[in-house]
Design brief:
Rna Polymerase Sigma Factor, Chain: A; Arc Repressor Mutant, subunit A; elongated
Length: 212
């Protein structure tokens, strides 16, 4: 049995247990996803107290709605969709929702510092890298995965603009596919790519400064 098949089987067992009111099934689900759910919620509403409330509302919605879950998506996808919808509703009520144009517009600035490229009039390499990205494959793994580096990344993610933070957390921290992220956040595939690229570029700048 492949890892995907094993995960699918485990999800079916959890769903069956939840529908039976099995407390252990619910406990297992909470142990698997409570912290990731809170992390995503905190990225949207920013307030720890509100994030906790959103996660609790999500668990209540899961208990109440498990009988209507048809399995068209994975249990994990369904769970995070509930969480994201509730978090965005709370953020909207608190006046934190911004129009998409404000999140991905031209005023966000270039994803990479233009000074790192040769100008378009360069006689041999117009528009090419003048200062290419640092190579990390030659660095000790311990340095890239050390506590200090991970703390720097976490802090940098927290400072990202809201849309970039949401997309980066879902894609690169929680491991959702681009299709799942688009469905959750109501983004087009093109906008999702742009936002993800901007977010990753900002994080790379932080890491380059750290390892450089």
């Amino acid at each position: 049995m492949t890892a995907v098949e094993q995960q699918s089987l485990e999800e079916r067992r959890l769903c069956e247990g939840l529908r039976r009111g099995d407390e252990q099934a619910f406990t297992t689900l909470v142990e698997l996803y409570h912290r990731p759910l809170r992390r995503v919620a905190l990225g949207i509403v920013r307030s720890p107290a509100v994030a906790d409330e959103v996660v609790q509302e999500t668990w209540l919605a899961v208990i109440r709605g498990i009988d209507s879950f048809e399995g068209r998506s994975s249990l994990k996808t369904w769970l995070f969709r509930i969480l994201t919808n509730k978090a965005r509703t709370r953020a909207g009520r608190e006046g934190r929702t911004l129009p998409l144009s404000a999140l991905v517009g031209d005023d966000d600035g270039p994803a990479v510092d233009p000074s790192r490229f040769l100008d378009q009039q360069h006689e041999r390499w117009p528009g090419h890298w003048a200062s290419p990205p640092a190579r990390w494959d030659e660095l000790p793994v311990e340095r890239l995965l050390g506590r200090e580096a991970l703390d720097r990344i976490a802090q940098a993610i927290d400072r990202l603009p809201e849309a970039q933070r949401d997309v980066v957390v879902l894609r690169d921290v929680e491991g959702f596919s681009s299709e799942e992220v688009c469905a959750r956040l109501g983004l087009s595939e093109a906008n999702q790519r742009v936002i993800l690229h901007r977010g990753r570029s900002r994080l790379r700048q932080v890491l380059e400064a750290y390892v450089g």
